[in-house]
Amino acid sequence: MSFYPEIEAFKTEMFKVSDIHTLYVEQAGNPNGIPVVFVHGGPGGGINEDHRRFFDPKKFRIVLFDQRGAGKSTPAAELRENSTWDLVSDLEKIREHLNIKKWVVFGGSWGSTLALTYAISHPEKVQHLILRGIFLCRPSEIHWFYQHGASEIYPDVWESYYNHIPAEERGDFVKAYYKRLTHENADVRLAAAKVWSKWEAATSKLFVDVQAIDDFDDPTYALQFARIECHYFINNAFFKTNNWILENIAKIKHIPCDIVQGRYDVVCPARSAWDLHRAWPEANLKIIQDAGHAAAEPGIKAALVAAADAL
Question: Rounded to the nearest 5 degrees, what angle is found at the Cα of 217, between the Cα atoms of 6 and 178?
């Protein structure tokens, strides 16, 4: 099962959510269809035209938005007033602004983190969850990808990430990159952003996608992605505990949920999806055996489209 055909948004707007931040919000598909909100990854990843194509445009009212500092939202790469709880609040503001009573929440990678956090905070507003590449934002997950773990599978790509940081700072790569990504010198910020972003891009698919790596040659995109990600990760995603989502999962067990996970996902290993499923056995878990992390991989894409169609 492939994507639905390309479609244009029927409405786009810039929606002010704070004194600092204005979000890009768009709608596509059927204005009277089942409301579904697409929650992008990163944090800082932004949306693109293909994200509309997971859903039947005749049956869904498709809502997409760029989170604070990401994509077309302004100001770009801004870290002030940018936390998980600000984004949860933004989702509610968008839902109310669009006069939607309840909606389907669809998110992958960091989008799964935010979708779960939003659902736990506002369970009465969520009709169904469709999640991909589960990321619970626990310290163990950050350590695996940014300190040691994924480095053993992609040692060739890791080398650039590793060598960008002096030996005396390699005990905590997230801290070292945060120092550079928030540096007063723009050249220092950009150099770190490109290395950080390209590490993730190189590991996101079962087969390395050169185009995905090259996309981060764009300075704005690299800075949005790297600065916002690192800002969230050095702050434990602003959670009060290291396992906040699983500790609060009982609040959403009544909500139907589909989980799609790539077996060979290096960015968000299947352990997190399995831990979520063990805590929430009512959720339907589908592991795609020949896939990595990216939503656009054939098996993952087909399973996500099928999950939406089943509604």
Answer: 110
